[in-house]
Amino acid sequence: MKSWLKLSILSLNLYSFSGMACDIHGHSGFMPENNVKIPVGTNFVGGITEEQFTKVMDKISLLFSDTVAKTGRKFVIERLWSDPTVNAYADQNTPGVDTIHMFGGLARHQETTEDAMALVACHELGHHLGGAPRKIDPTTGSAFWASNEGQADYWGTMKCLRHYFEGDDNVAAIQNIQVPTEVSSRCQLIYKNANEIAGCERAAMAGLALAKLLNAITQGTTPVSFTTPDKSVVAKTYDAHPQSQCRLDTYYQASLCDHGFGEIVSQTNANTGVCSVKNGDQIGYRPLCWFKP
Question: Which of 212, 244, 249, 278 holds its CA 20 to 30 A away from the CA of 226?
């Protein structure tokens, strides 16, 4: 029996889920709350090393500290490698500071890759910079500081991860990853040069890794796939965590949206700087399983 399976069985009674990993006055988590712990030294195949974890956080900090500074705030990454928590979250609990908390437990999960870890950090930064739609305070009906979960996924892939990949040899980075034909053919329709196509594929595959992780943590029984999109349609925009397939759909569509990092999103207009039907885009817009245009 594989060691991860043993860990899963031992942890089976430790799961505790809620619709959101946070409330609007606290912090905003990457996934629903759970009590799964993966301590340093856990022996199973997969996950990333502390060196890889540090490399990702160094690059995110280097690329985005100035971007946050332009909003008049400071960007801080809490690097919690020794913490076994399988999650991540963002907050503004320190005045003037946009903080993201990145835990080693998530980094050590068997589905986590370097690119997936970067996408988690991008998701958390997306709560700060991702724009509309933002979470709604149920007590007042006004928009809270944080972009909602779906928007953090969308901005995190379309803007943040794309910027993170800029300057990389994406063709080399993707060469040992088996990219589904569905993904490669769609990326080739949108992007023209080999490095951009590979960057699109790389972003989609990072999203797949996270969707598989989410499915494992929430004990989903249906495998996620690029070819089985969530067909549900929300009556109003859903602020909490969408299901794993819906989140994969968001990562995938964001990878296909060609509105780059330089196109700034709006805190109030959900159509600014993104792909949408209203903007005349044919592909790459937010899935209706969480977003109501």
Answer: 278
